[in-house]
Automatic annotation (TrEMBL):
GO terms assigned for molecular function: monooxygenase activity
Domain of life, per lineage: Bacteria
Record-annotated membrane-spanning stretches: none
Name by which UniProt lists this protein: Class 6 soluble di-iron monooxygenase coupling
Family: Belongs to the TmoD/XamoD family.
UniProt entry keywords in alphabetical sequence: Monooxygenase, Oxidoreductase
InterPro entries per UniProt: MOase_MmoB_DmpM, mOase_MmoB_DmpM_sf
Entry keyword annotation includes Oxidoreductase: yes
Length: 105
């Protein structure tokens, strides 16, 4: 081991099976989230970054041209690494360990 302190991995990722929902998500990310690296892996897209990926469904709908429900988005999402959670209007994968942060008063 080196003498450097060990820090948790900050790289997180999201894997989307190719579909019209995935393509719309990639278009959204490419235009609105330049910090997210997008790789076309043939049958799927890999989205990676350090920190957080937040996919707001209402904004992806604009690229899709029709409504996008969370359940429909989750069908094309085949995998992720990081800590995932669903918000009212978005799917989020993060490296943050919010359960270990002290409660705010």
């Amino acid at each position: 081991m080196s003498g450097t302190p060990s820090h948790g991995r900050r790289t997180i990722g999201l894997v989307l099976m190719k579909s019209e929902e995935a393509q719309a998500t990639v278009h959204y990310v490419s235009e609105e989230c330049p910090q997210i690296r997008v790789q076309d892996r043939g049958t799927f897209f890999l989205l990676e970054t350090e920190g957080t990926i937040r996919i707001p469904l209402a904004e992806v709908e604009e690229y899709l041209g029709k409504p996008l429900t969370m359940s429909r988005f989750l069908v094309c999402m085949s995998s992720y690494y990081g800590r995932a959670h669903v918000e009212d209007d978005a799917f989020v994968v993060t490296a943050d360990m919010s359960q270990l942060e002290p409660a705010k008063t």
